[in-house]
Amino acid sequence: MLPTRKKLKNGFSIVEAIVAIFILSIALSATMRTLVQNSNDANLVNNSFIASGLAQEGMEVVRNLRDNEWSLNAAWGSIVLDGTWSVQWDSMSLETNSNVFLKKDNNGFYNYSSGTDTLFKRRIVISSPGPGIEKKIVTTVSWIERGNPKILVVEEHLYNWR
Amino acid sequence: MKKIKQIFKHNGFTLIESVVTIFIFSILISVVMGIFVSALNLQRRSFNIQQIEENANFILESMAKEIRVGTINSPNTNCPLAVSSSLDITHPVNGSVVYSLSGNDLLRTVNGLQTTVNSNTIQFTSLKFCVFGNINPDQKQPRVTILATIRSTNAKQQVSIDIETTISQRSLQE
């Protein structure tokens, strides 16, 4: 009986073909998903890197202002005031935070006055855990990537100690 | 026996059948090839971003460390109108360090000795420094703003990113 059956089985049935295509498409879609994920991750890395530069800038400008207090013989906390603020690369004081996007001007400077909106928002929150001696600085850079909110938070403590 | 005969009768394809098969097959293949090509492009782009990120991370971090602990020698710039294309600092251990651009490469000149900092997988299309508060005494602590545009050398799926960061000198200056 066996040889007859073998002859009958010559070729694929439609069910076999469908199953094969189904399995193949699952395998392919998994591969595609991995590739798309890879690409999204690369974008996230790209934006995170720009954001880390901006966060560092926020921190360094606040520290710079703290150092200016010393240069000016001003009282501790007279320039670095508690609250929620904005700063940009040339800030000489803390500025009101109106929760707007950082702009990039023709020369490539990230600022708040001229140029086109970028993806990023930066917020600086200053508080005094130890009044008169310590300031806690929290810089938050946030952006929206493919509809998902992303956030980078950096914290630093500055002391009245040179 | 009847079944076997029937099967033997269908032995081979008609012209129409082969044409239809080839047509369907070619459509399938072209779709698959399209997917493959776009996957390849995505992969290239990701790789370019990775190259930029690895280089820029290392370069900016090492530059920031040197600027923080050193003293800035470059004079004030009138930014954003006029920027400086190089930065001159004195590092407490390494001595005189100058960062400048040579073509599309970042040069670090330590006591006259030049080295290229970036790998050849990336290029600097622009590098600007802004020095602020570096007149003694101006009652301002010196700070440097670094603006860099970095792109991948690979022109296929080329990626270019703009980075900005600011570093404040740690050593106090009136």
Description:
- The complex is a heterodimer of chains A (162) and B (174).
- With 162 residues, chain A is of the alpha+beta class.
- Chain A has one domain.
- Chain A is 40% helix and 28% strand.
- Chain A has a five-stranded antiparallel β-sheet with strand order 2-1-6-7-8, with helices on one face.
- In chain A, a hairpin with a 5-residue loop joins strand 3 and strand 4.
- The mean pLDDT of chain A is 90.
- In chain B, the strands form two sheets. Chain B has a five-stranded antiparallel β-sheet with strand order 1-2-3-4-5, covered by helices on one side.
- Chain B is built from two helices and eight strands.
- Chain B is an alpha+beta fold and 174 residues long.
- In chain B, strand 3 and strand 4 form a beta hairpin.
- Chain B is rod-shaped, with a radius of gyration of 30 Å.
- In chain B, 36% of the residues lie in helices and 32% in strands.
- The interface between A and B is large, with 41 and 46 residues.
Distance between the termini of chain B: 107 Å
Q: How many β-strand runs of chain A?
A: 8
Widest sheet: strand ordering of chain B: 1-2-3-4-5
**Rough shape of chain A?**
elongated
User: How many E strands of chain B?
Assistant: 8
Rounded to an integer in angstroms, the radius of gyration calculated over CA atoms of chain B is 30 Å
Largest sheet of chain B: 5 strands, antiparallel
Largest interface: A-B, 41 and 46 residues
Instruction: State the shape of chain B.
Output: rod-shaped
Write the layout of secondary structure elements.
The complex is a heterodimer of chains A (162) and B (174).
Chain A: H1 2-8, H2 14-71, E1 83-86, E2 95-96, E3 103-104, E4 110-111, E5 116-117, E6 121-130, E7 134-145, E8 148-159
Antiparallel strand pairs in A: 1-2, 1-6, 3-4, 3-5, 6-7, 7-8
Chain B: H1 2-9, H2 15-69, E1 71-72, E2 87-91, E3 95-102, E4 105-110, E5 113-116, E6 122-132, E7 143-152, E8 160-168
Antiparallel strand pairs in B: 1-2, 2-3, 3-4, 4-5, 6-7, 7-8
